[in-house]
Amino acid sequence: MPDPSPLALPTRFDGDPDRVALVIPGVGYSPARPLLHFACAVLVQRGWTVQELWWQVPHDFPQLTVDDRIAWVERQVGGAVAAEGEACRLLVGKSLGSLACGIAADRRMAAAWLTPVLTLDQVARSLRRSEAPTLLVGGSADKLWDRQVAGSVGHEVLEVPSADHSLELADDPVGSVGVLRQVVSRLDRFVGSLEI
Do the Cβ atoms of 25 and 94 come closer than 8 Å? Predict the structure, then answer.
């Protein structure tokens, strides 16, 4: 088998084989984007094995029902979790990835959800029944974030004032870098607090 292309991005970072974290993208927010890139860096620095999940959302995805969208995400994430077995202990997901929060609840897995889709009742219900440590991060200017839901599900919450769905500040790239620092610092504390 030929060596992989030197230009290919790694999708797996080996650390402790008994602590695997799955990094889950959003619709158009890949693991190469800042929030997930630095989430991966935090996990690697703390000794985790990290498996990035990359996906191509089906072209007809916007026409699917909410239940079908959740089922599609759960198939992608469930397959990746199953491939890791009992070693998979943490999910870190962006936006669409949060539709897999039912998997975290069912398997009692820790999770960090960056801009979770809190406007969906199914997501809120799954978060409420999740007993494992969970961090929710969202921005007050994100239409898919719901402050009341975030505060009612019993998990750690970081809400960034004026941040949008990318956890950025409109027309303020320097301020957006400050938000990124705040989010990554909170994620680092969360991951460090896990007794796994």
Answer: yes
Residue 81 pLDDT > 50: yes
Tokens of 78: 């469930």
Q: Give me the numbers of helices (H) and strands (E) for the chain, helices first please.
A: 6, 7
Q: Say how far apart CA 12 and CA 154 lie, in whole Å.
A: 32
pLDDT-based confidence at 167, cuts 50/70/90? Answer: very high
CB contact at 8 A, 29 and 54: no
Q: Quick one: DSSP state of residue 125? A: H
Question: Buried b vs exposed e over 117-141: b needs ≥16 C-beta within 10 Å?
Answer: bbebeebbebbeebebbbbbbbbeb
Give the pLDDT score at 9: 67
The count of residues in the chain is 196
Among the listed residues 12, 90, 89, the one whose alpha carbon sits nearest the alpha carbon of residue 50:
12
pLDDT in tens, 139-151: 999 999 999 999 9
pLDDT for residue 195: 79
- pLDDT class for 1, splitting at 50, 70, 90? very low
CB 152 within 8 A of CB 132: no
Classify burial at 62, counting beta carbons within 10 Å of its beta carbon; exposed 0-12, middle 13-18, buried 19 or more.
exposed
The one-letter amino acid at 128: R
Partners of 23 in the beta sheet? 52, 92
